[in-house]
Amino acid sequence: MRKRIHFILLMAVMAMGPALVSCQSDDTDMDDIIALYQMEPVAVELDFSQLTEAPDVPVTDENDSAYNDYVENSPWNKVINIAFDGGNATVTGSVPGVAIQRNGAHLTIMNMSGPVKFVISGKTDNGSLKFYGDKRFQVLLNGAEITNPNGAAINNQGGKTFYVVLADGTVNRLQDGENYTMVDEEDQKAALFSEGQIVFSGHGELSVIAVGRGGIRSDDYIRIRPGVRIYVNSSALDGLRANDGIIVDGGVVNIVTTGVGAKGVRSGGEMKVNGGRLIAVNDGDPRVETDENDTTSCAGLYCDTLLTINAGILKFKATGDGGKGLNAKHNVIFTGGSFQAVATGTRKNKKPKGVKIDGNFAISGGYFYAYSRRSDPLEVNGTLSVAQGYKTYDQLPKVVIIQY
Amino acid sequence: MLLCAALLPQQLWADDSGLILNAGASRKIKKGLNVDVEAEFRSRNNFRTADRVSLGAAISYKLLPWLKASGGYDLLIDNNHEEITYQDDGVSYNNWRPSYWGVRHRFNVTLTGSYKVQRVELSLRERWQYTYRPSKFIKNFDFDEGEWEDHEVRGKGKNMLRSRFQVEWDIPKCKFDPFASVEFHTTDVLEKTRFIVGVEHTIKKKHSFKLYYRYQNVNGSGGDDEPNIHMAGMGYTFKF
Question: ipTM of the assembly?
Answer without folding.
Answer: 0.82
